[in-house]
Amino acid sequence: MDNPFSLKGKKILVTGASSGIGRQIAISVSGMGAETFITGRNEQRLSNVFNLLEVPGTQYAADLNIEKEQDSLIELMPNLDGVVLSAGIVKTLPFKFINRKDWDSIFETNFFSPAILINKLLKTKKLNKNGSVVFISSIAGNFVGTVGNAMYSASKGAINAMQKVLAIELSAQRIRVNNISPGMIKTELIYDPIFTEEQLKDDEKKYPLGFGEPIDVANAVIYLLSDASKWVTGSTLIIDGGFTIQ
Amino acid sequence: MNIEKFVREFADQFDDLDTSAFAAETLFKENDEWSSMTALSVIAMVDDVYTVRLTGDDIRNSKVIQDIYDIVLKKSNS
């Protein structure tokens, strides 16, 4: 039987690919045969990831919050069969301490940047029919409220809402739009010194299957990018070790 | 930097507790209100007012308000 999760022959762009979840997504997606195009801010780390790709496309170190760099990236891209929006940042602040600059900074990276990237790909007609758009969201988007997490939650909630409209708009072209909502994944992002090791350990105890790993998200991305999910759009795939069912 | 001012700013992060008696030697965790939320508020206040980044460990290793003050002083001078 042909592998239903194969990504052979597809061209996929992954943002946030220099570290964490994005890094593993790029490696896994390429491992399934996709010609993989990666972008991230850290040139050195991005390069390291590029060297691990089985089917490398191109690499482009860029800050996608800067419009000119986004435009340059788009120009470099071939027509794509899939895009994974994995660039994201976190900042923990109790609500009454959040100022406008903080809101703008989180929303810039987590919401506006990916939204505008898709907007430009559509304008330049670089998203192929039958393509797949995958947003890496979070259970913090619509499912969980954590102290200090307002900005991050709001930005992910915005992604979740936006994707529904995008899914409807792009359905005529058979382009599917979905998100993966992970729980806590063991990457640098979660090791914020604002929390102690004990606090993190206590949090992990609340997960029936413990904290997750980047590969857990990457494997879900493979499914959403592949033809196996051709009838799946506008959905949220929760990958959280059982956290939100409690 | 001024310890009295710091104690007031620290006490400000409590919403319920009567903090009128708060001083440098106050064991700030020994009360019903202290929680991870209060800890995050203290960290945010210090970043805001003193442009110093406290860590969860800084809070964990401190017992009295003076302890936190000393850490902030040290970090703001380095």
Quick structural gist:
The complex is a heterodimer of chains A (246) and B (78). With 246 residues, chain A is of the alpha/beta class.
Describe the structure.
Chain A has 246 residues and is an alpha/beta fold. Helix content of chain A is 41%, strand content 17%. Chain A is built from eight helices and seven strands. Chain A has helices spanning 20-31, 43-50, 67-76, 100-123, 139-142, 150-170, 197-205, 214-225; strands at 11-14, 35-40, 56-61, 80-85, 127-136, 176-182, 236-239. Chain A has a seven-stranded parallel beta sheet, sandwiched between helices. In chain A, strand 4 (80-85), helix 4 and strand 5 (127-136) form a beta-alpha-beta unit. Chain B has one domain: ACP-like (Non-ribosomal Peptide Synthetase Peptidyl Carrier Protein, Chain A). The longest helix of chain B is centred in the middle third of the chain and has 15 residues, at 36-50. With 78 residues, chain B is an all-alpha fold. The two termini of chain B are 14 Å apart. The model of chain B has no long low-confidence stretch (mean pLDDT 96). Chain B is globular and about 35 Å long. The A-B interface holds A 92-94, 96-97, 147-148, 193-196, 198-199 and B 36-37, 40-41, 43-45, 48, 53, 55-57, 59-60.
Unreliable stretches covering 5 or more consecutive residues of chain B: none
CATH hierarchy, class of chain A = Alpha Beta
Given as residue ranges, the uncertain stretches of chain A (5+ residues, pLDDT < 50) are none
Q: How many domains is the backbone of chain B divided into?
A: 1
The overall average pLDDT of chain A, rounded, is 97
Class by alpha and beta content of chain A: alpha/beta
Order of secondary-structure elements of chain B: HHHH
Oligomer: heterodimer
Derived structural class of chain B? mainly alpha
CATH architecture of chain B: Orthogonal Bundle
Helical fraction of chain B equals 40-55%
CA-CA gap between termini of chain B: 14 Å
Number of strands of chain B: 0
Strand residue content of chain B = under 5%
Radius of gyration of chain B: 11 Å
CATH superfamily of chain A: NAD(P)-binding Rossmann-like Domain
